[in-house]
């Protein structure tokens, strides 16, 4: 077998591709652990500063005249979609990071990565695409697995697993809205313009949420600020950009399946760093859930009848 992967006339060494994907999975898997380690700060403060610092890292790219012009050339409908996509991204971060205060890392990350299922269910309404029969079977099994995990109330050390699992599911639904609403707009913008615009929308949402609930945004120790920076750098910049780079050489459905390693990586890191072992419900429901989501992701390539 050749040591290079060739897609659309371009080649990349297999080892390099594997290393980039592994680094991306490890980076996104660290997100929940970093949130748990920053427990001195309220969840909404963590979400706000993760988005704020990630936006600051992208700010120099926004000074490009061509990138600003791309956004101004969007139609009114596309601008609304871009705005709502950013709102959904802010809700996603707020809900998911809050879920980690109430349930286990394994359960939270498993449930928040169910967005392929919600994308499939919402696609007929938002973008007019129908699922194939095989995909519907996978959706049904995935909902069964998600239900087993979400209703598991025996998660050791978790103050309110049902609330936490519900917030994680809300985060998954919001992430699905972010993907679907931004899908048509993304074709008109480069990755940096799109990321900057949606992060700006998420920042506004999280700032409003923090103000409404009276959440403090200052007064944290240096170690907490360091964790905020790590969240912006590792999961946001390294993790997401590694997957974006890999899309140049492998299909999107392959990346979707690779990202299913995130719950496994997060659970292992939680076990090693936080001594947090998954419950039986998370084990069994997670196995059904991950298998079904992988099936749905692969079925997405087949056109519906």
Order of helices and strands: EEHHHHHHHHHHHHH
| Annotation field: number of helices | 13
Q: Describe the strand arrangement of the main beta sheet, using strand numbers.
A: 1-2
Whole-number tally of structural domains: 1
Q: SS-based structural class?
A: mainly alpha
Rounded mean pLDDT is 82
Taking pLDDT < 50 over at least 5 consecutive residues as the criterion, the unreliable ranges are: 1-9
| Radius of gyration of CA atoms, rounded to a whole number | 19 Å
Shape type? globular
Main sheet record: 2 strands, antiparallel
Number of strands: 2
| CA(first)-CA(last) distance | 36 Å
What fraction, in percent, of the residue positions are helical? over 70%
Strand content: under 5%
Provide structural commentary:
The structure is a single chain. It is globular, with a radius of gyration of 19 Å. The chain is built from 13 helices and 2 strands. Helix 2 (43-62) crosses helix 10 (222-246), helix 4 (76-99) crosses helix 9 and helix 5 (105-112) runs parallel beside helix 8. The chain is 74% helix and 3% strand. The chain has a two-stranded antiparallel ribbon. The protein is an all-alpha fold. It has one domain. The protein starts with a strand and ends in a 6-residue tail after the last helix. It has helices at 14-37, 43-62, 65-72, 76-99, 105-112, 115-126, 133-150, 161-186, 191-212, 222-246, 252-258, 261-273, 280-299, and strands at residues 4-7, 10-13.
């Amino acid at each position: 077998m050749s040591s290079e992967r060739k897609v659309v006339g371009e080649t990349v060494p297999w080892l390099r591709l594997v290393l980039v994907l592994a680094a991306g999975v490890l980076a996104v898997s660290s997100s929940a652990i970093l949130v748990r380690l920053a427990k001195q700060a309220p969840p909404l403060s963590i979400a706000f500063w993760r988005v704020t610092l990630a936006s600051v890292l992208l700010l120099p790219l926004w000074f490009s005249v061509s990138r600003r012009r791309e956004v101004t050339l969007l139609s009114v409908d596309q601008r609304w979609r871009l705005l709502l996509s950013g709102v959904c991204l802010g809700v996603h971060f707020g809900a998911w990071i809050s879920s980690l205060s109430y349930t286990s890392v394994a359960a939270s990350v498993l449930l928040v990565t169910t967005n392929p299922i919600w994308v499939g269910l919402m696609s007929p309404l938002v973008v007019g695409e129908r699922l194939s029969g095989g995909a519907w079977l996978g959706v049904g099994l995935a909902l069964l697995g998600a239900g087993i995990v979400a209703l598991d109330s025996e998660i050791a050390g978790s103050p309110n697993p049902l609330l936490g699992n519900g917030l994680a599911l809300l985060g998954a639904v919001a992430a699905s809205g972010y993907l679907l609403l931004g899908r048509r707009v993304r074709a008109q913008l480069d990755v940096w313009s799109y990321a900057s615009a949606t992060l700006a929308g998420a920042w506004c949402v999280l700032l409003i949420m923090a103000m409404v609930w009276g959440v403090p945004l200052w007064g944290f120790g240096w170690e907490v600020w360091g964790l905020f920076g790590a969240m912006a750098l590792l999961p946001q910049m390294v993790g997401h950009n590694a997957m974006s780079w890999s899309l140049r050489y492998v299909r999107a459905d392959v990346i979707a399946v690779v990202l299913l390693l995130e719950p496994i990586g997060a659970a292992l890191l939680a076990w090693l760093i936080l001594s947090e072992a998954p419950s039986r419900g998370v084990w069994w429901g997670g196995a059904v859930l991950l298998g079904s989501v992988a099936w749905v992701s692969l079925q997405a390539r087949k056109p519906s009848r």
